[in-house]
Write a structure and sequence with these properties.
The chain has 6 helices and 15 strands. The protein is of the alpha+beta class and 263 residues long.
């Protein structure tokens, strides 16, 4: 009977360990990625006591609230494991959703915070001066106190996120020729000026290809890269596009998502 009780205790301990381990999730330290954002750096300089919290969301959990995240980010969210990083001080906070696999920042939102606020300058109150009359019996007339005028609080102007008008206009993920050599990803410039895409990245959530420095797309033109370039060692590294249920994500040098293409 005592041996049976020990077995039950051991099974309970193992089950509890598994539950605790599963709740932790993730395992990556994405705090440096979050702290690299300019708005987070500025917020921490102005609020040195602000706290950073990071939570891990599984693909199933993200799928349940993908619409809510999409509204916050103003884009369609493909369900996948994400980190939610938050820095807060009082009612102000900055929230980022970060891809758990690639550590690419999906989007960043600010709640209750719009940057530094100018401190109003008050005009000091004038000291009243008594003006006596020449007649000794006359009552002196005092100059009324001036009403202080406060300088209105300046409204800071937020810098908009740069718009490149570069899109993923075509992906050949199942070519008639050899795979992955004949796979192709095409980017198109739909804007009014040439765009330097050197240092930008193409990723499928598992492998990443960095576009060579100095690569530029002219107005109304396109740029393509074949699988033989973004996966030179065939299947072992770089991008490898599945023939079904995959995606390609384009990010700039700051990690901002420029466009997504999924199938």
């Amino acid at each position: 009977m005592r041996k049976y009780s020990n077995v039950i205790f051991l099974v309970s301990v193992i089950a509890l360990s598994i539950i605790v381990s599963g709740c932790a999730g993730g395992g990556q330290d994405i705090t440096p990625v979050f702290k690299s954002l300019p708005e987070v750096q500025q917020f921490l300089q102005e609020n040195p006591n602000a706290k950073i919290t990071v939570t891990y969301w599984t693909e199933e959990e993200v799928s349940e609230i993908s619409d809510e995240i999409g509204i916050q980010c103003n884009k369609t969210i493909i369900p996948r494991a994400l980190y939610k990083a938050t820095v807060s001080e009082g009612d102000f906070n900055i929230v980022s959703w970060i891809d758990a696999e690639t550590q690419i920042i999906i989007c960043t939102t600010t709640q209750g915070y719009s940057g530094p606020t100018a401190t109003p300058t008050e005009t000091p109150t004038a000291t009243p001066t008594a003006t006596p009359t020449a007649t000794p019996t006359a009552t002196p007339t005092e100059t009324p106190t001036a009403t202080p005028t406060e300088t209105p609080t300046a409204t800071p102007t937020e810098q908009p996120t740069p718009t490149y008008n570069v899109v993923i206009c075509d992906v050949i993920y199942d070519p008639p020729g050899a795979e992955p050599d004949d796979e192709l990803i095409k980017l198109c410039n739909q804007g009014n000026s040439a765009v330097d895409i050197g240092g930008w990245r193409l990723t499928d959530g598992e492998g990443t290809y960095t576009i060579p420095s100095g690569t530029t797309i002219a107005v109304g033109s396109s740029w393509s890269v074949f699988g033989s370039t973004y996966n030179p060692t065939r299947y072992t590294r770089g991008l490898y596009l599945n023939n079904d249920h995959d995606e390609v994500i384009l990010t700039d040098t700051a990690g901002n998502i420029i466009d997504e293409y999924s199938w």
